[in-house]
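Sat 14:20. Reprocessing the chain from the morning session after the first attempt stalled halfway. Input below, unchanged.
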Amino acid sequence: MGTHDDGRTRAWEAAGRHAAALVNDGDRVGLGTGRAAAAGIRALADRVADGLRCVGVPTSKASRALGRELGLRVAGMREPVDIAFDGADLVTPGGLIIKGAGGAIVRERVVDASAGRFLVLVDGPKVADSLDAWGILPIAVIPFAADHVAFALAELRPTRRAGRSDDNLVVMDLAIPAGSDWTELDGRIRGVPGVVDTGLFRVDPDDVLVGTPDGGVRPLGEFAREARG
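Finished this time. Tokens:
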């Protein structure tokens, strides 16, 4: 008998295959970080094994290691990428997403912002009407300013993660009060000296691919309408 996790894995694999199928020969491809992105990297490697030529631009050391293990040609960030795919912690029907559980916020921002098309790979449990369902906003901070940032944002109860990001940044999780205007609050947080980036992203809902346990993929808008009944 399959488990709930099996269903989620199948959903991520479906979204990953769909994203990999959109890569054209010769593309530079942004490789995201996390379980859904890893499914996309594996699907891309399958296409490369069948003759596709592309170069992967990883957003983390983990994604770079996986890409190399699977035989992908990988490179650093220089010119823009043609297409990128990544996962998310939560996404709303309007295209607001939270990223950063894996701590790769800054590299993800750089790669994804350069992409001709940026695809977000999720499954049903990661779709919610409001970001309040997640309630946490990760931020990346330069180490020198970490105590200062924590003090300046004390009302958001910052929790510092152990270790550092791949770029030697401190990652903190902020507790966002329910009912907050996430976009307005994000702007204020970014204004605190020492904050390098936050995990709030905005994407085109048509570029959010929702995988399902039966191996299907639906665009975010269609999935959200079906979920509402």
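Helices lie at 4-21, 35-49, 61-69, 105-114, 146-152, 182-190, 220-228.
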